[in-house]
Amino acid sequence: MTNTVSEAASYEFTTLTAIPGVLEYQGARIQLLDLPGIVEGASQGRGRGRQVVAVAKTADLIVMMLDATKSLQQRRLLEIELDAVGIRLNKQKPDVVFKRKTGGGITINATVKLTRIDEKTIRTVLQGYKIHNCDLMIREDISVDEFIDVLLGTRKYVPCLYVYNKIDSISLEEVNRLAHQENTVVISCELNLNLDYLLDQIWEHLSLVKVYTKKRGVHPDLTDPVCLRKGATIETVCNSIHRTLAPNFKYALVWGKSSRFAPHAQKVSLNHTVQDEDVVSIFTK
Question: What's the predicted TM-score (pTM) here?
Answer without folding.
Answer: 0.82
